[in-house]
Amino acid sequence: MITKESIENLKNHLDVVDVVSQFIELKKSGANFKACCPFHGEETPSFVVSPAKQIYHCFGCGVGGDAIKFVMEYEKLSYPETLEKLASMHSVNLEYDNNNNQKKQDIKVLEEVNKYYQKLFVNNNIAKEYIASRGISEFSIEKFEIGYAPTSNDTINFLKNNYYNLADAKELGVIDTGQSGLYSRFIERITFPIYSLNGKIVGFGGRTITGHNAKYVNSPQTKIFNKSKLLYGYNLAKENIYKKNRIIVTEGYLDVIMLHQAGFNTAVATLGTALTQEHLPLLRRGEPKVIVAYDGDKAGLTAAFKASVMLSQGEFEGGVIIFDEGKDPADMVKEGKIEELNNIFDSPQAFISFSIDYIVSKYDINNPSQKQKALIEANDYLKSLGIIYQDEYKRYLAQKLNIRENLVKSSTDVVRKNEVNLKKIDIGELCIIRSILEKPQRLDSVLDIIDSTMFEHHRDEFELLISDINNQSFNGILINDKLEVYDDERLKQELLVLLRKFYANKLRSVQYDQGLAFKEKANLLRKIKDNIYQLKLGKLVSYNL
After folding, report:
1. Boundary-marking domain end, from 187, 218, 249
2. Segment 201-228 mean pLDDT
3. Average pLDDT for 226-253
4. Which of 218, 251, 270 delimits the end of a domain?
5. What is the pLDDT, as a whole number, of residue 157?
6. What 3 state SS string does 73-107 have?
7. Measuring CA to CA, which residue among 439, 454, 524 is closest to residue 496?
8. Which contacts (CB < 8 Å, 24+ apart) does range 372-379 have?
9. Which strand ranges, in their side-by-side order, compose the sheet holding 246-250?
10. CATH code of the domain covering residue 395
11. 350-374 CB burial, b ≥16 within 10 A, e <16
12. Which helix (H) or strand (E) holds 153?
């Protein structure tokens, strides 16, 4: 079992915005952050994360909780698994009451294997010659911790001879089991250690120098390695990304290394995969301009188009750079074309115009039928963007297709599907409830004055407040920035409004109630009228009906 002390220590290291933003894309909204809820389908963001309260809540489906609860639900992990994942992500050590029942995954194996590969690289002339031939300096070799993975048996013997836990090595993707027993994942390859956002090694990339079929391989999916959420070099680039407000996304390890070597130290790379939605939270950090720098071959152009569509729909600033004639950033750095690169990175093509160009290029627009198809596809893409972008680029598309601008349709007449909450919301009632939640000591004095029956629309919430003021279902109220938190005087005035409305309705109800005996009815009417009189004088009255 994980000790309570280490759980509390972990919680002290967690920031709910930081944790959630590593899984989904958040956008600032006043004092809070918003996103489309990852737990149910929606088009209008109703998922709110509060840095002040350290909680999240979805106003659409009602889910909510803290950072730990989010990771449990999002990753479908048990509570202990979630704690271990978060501890690994934030470099926090967990302690266990019984190591036989729960054992911390020993990521030290990755650290030691990385050191082993680095030592082997220093003594391997073939590996060093290859790296030198690519123009990589000694400083870059050290900065990026370039190594060399030997034969499979050598790696396994290293683990055994140093008494490292083979189960940990397997779970972390260093080795695996095949028909002939254990084997190493990386055999006779240049190795590039891959780090998480928080600077912990989570896996490797490897390039063959002895003719293996796969030129590049990455660590397999593990609890701490997901290539769709990682960017190579981000741990080294992040501070410069924040300072320079720019991130350059390339296709390979060598591009990143050479660009850093030339001073373009905001460069990162995807890990053998296209840019995905899961990368967006990482790209959003610091709100930098995103420069997608890909090769000009068919695969590179397709990947750049998909990235451009995704980034433009996410309203990222930046653009696309395509390297033609078989060149790539690494080649240009090696050839000393630093100034040319600088000019290229300063003048990317906007994501939207690039996407429109790519769509149009797929069709023969001299053929009316093909032109019509190009218009439909490009129009559908434009409609996925914001209204201002649609209006700005209608003319561009019309010029590309040589058609009248009015043939390009916008989506201003399209009504988005909004989630309808059939229950009526009363802001005044909710503000009273939130003001009590913010200062729970108010509850006792308020209960002397009001009853749950006085709440016309939020009686259930007030009754829950009385029975369980710390219930997590109040997260939505606590982080709703539309709800004001009253000071004591304002709370008194709002309670007066609530009471006057309640007693006015009660007076009418009793007056027309034929089921009450005359004496009981007269006594009740006297109490109600007296309460209304006191309320008009600005005095809060005790509930006495």
Report:
1. 218
2. 89
3. 92
4. 218
5. 96
6. HHHCCCHHHHHHHHHHHCCCCCCECCCCCCCCCCC
7. 454
8. 374/401, 375/401, 375/403, 375/407, 375/408, 379/408, 379/409
9. 267-269, 246-250, 289-295, 318-323
10. 1.20.50
11. bbbbbbbbbbbeebebeeeeebebb
12. helix 152-161
Could you give the CA distance from residue 437 to residue 24 in angstroms, rounded to a whole number?
A: 28
Domain-embedded: residue 412: no
- What CATH number corresponds to the domain at position 489? 1.10.860.10
Q: Which of 13, 72, 83, 74 is nearest to 47 (CA)?
A: 74
CB neighbours (10 Å) of residue 392?
15
Residue 80 sits in a domain of what CATH number? 3.90.580.10
Average pLDDT score over residue span 275-299:
89
> In whole angstroms, what is the distance from residue 476 CA to residue 135 CA?
55
Model pLDDT, residue 141: 97
Rounded to 5 degrees, what are φ and ψ at 49? -115, 130
CA dihedral 419, 421, 427, 430 (to 10 degrees): -110
Residue 286 and residue 336 in one domain: yes
CB-facing half-sphere around the CA of 481: CA atoms within 13 A: 15
Amino acid present at 198: N
- Return the bridge partners of 353, or none: none
What is the count of structural domains for the chain?
A: 5
**CB-based contact 42:36 (threshold 8 Å):** yes
How many CB atoms neighbour CB 202 within 10 A? 24
Query: What tokens were used for 367?
Result: 């053929």
The pLDDT tens digits for 113-145 are 999 999 999 999 999 999 999 999 999 999 999
Residues 54, 137 within the same domain: no
Helix axes 351-361, 368-383, angle to 10 degrees: 150
Backbone angles phi, psi at 530, to 5 degrees: -65, -40
CATH of the domain at 292: 3.40.1360.10
**pLDDT tens digits, one per residue of 495-540:** 998 888 888 888 888 888 878 888 888 888 888 898 888 888 888 8
- Show the domain range for 511: 427-536
| CA distance linking residue 260 with residue 268, whole number of Å | 9
- 189: helix, coil or strand? strand
* Phi, psi (deg, nearest 5) at residue 359: -60, -50
Dihedral sign computed on CA atoms, order 208, 212, 218, 220: negative
Residue 541: CB atoms within 10 A of its CB come to: 18
Residue 238, SS3 per DSSP: helix
pTM recorded for the entire structure: 0.64
